[in-house]
Amino acid sequence: MTEDEANSESLMDRQTTGEDRVRMVAQQLSEPRTANWIASEADWSHEPTKRVLRRLVDDGILHRDETGTHTTYYPDYRRQAIQEAMRLRDSDHTVEELTDRLAEMKAQIRDWEDEFDVESPNQLRGTLANETLGSDEEDRRREIAQAWEHLQWRIEIVGFAIREWDFLAPKTESPEVSSV
Q: Where is this region: Disordered (predicted)?
């Protein structure tokens, strides 16, 4: 560990509580995780982590899934998508720039579809059964399939931000209250 890394770690430890770290970890989840995993990532003990996770579930920020062998927690992906769309709207990007980025992402997916003659990330993963592929090519296809899924998610969010550009605009005045 470099001196800079050590300094930034100690700064994080000094400026965040265990609860803060659990909240940060939990809100950045991209797949369901157990309380133990979240506690480990947040560098905090298990029982207090579970209490924070229960509150996050009660507040509608996380969902709890008890159907498997272990209880897992995952964020409300709709909430994440809307928050990301709001961040895009509030950023320095124009709607034209986001539209260009959307076109680039879709073109990338079309390129992969043409290159591998497949229509989805899972179909690309299915090509790994081809015995003539070397390990480097297998790794490349796995990485592309993962990137493809990420791009599909980003396309949805960027498309939503573009479609709802006016609605997502920050309001400078409080809305009029109507008695409907």
A: 1-20
For 93, the token pair is: 């990007």
Separation between Cα atoms, residue 77 and residue 74, nearest integer Å: 8
Cα distances (Å, whole numbers) of residue 20 to 35, 61, 65, 122, 177: 15, 14, 22, 36, 35
C-alpha triplet 143, 149, 153: angle, nearest 5°: 140
Indicate whether 173 pLDDT > 90.
no
Per-residue pLDDT of 133-149, as tens digits, reads 999 999 999 999 999 99
Q: Please check whether residue 29 is in contact with residue 75, taking contact to mean a CB–CB distance below 8 angstroms.
A: yes
Q: What is the pTM of this model?
A: 0.65
Q: Does domain 3-75 have CATH number 1.10.1740.10?
A: no
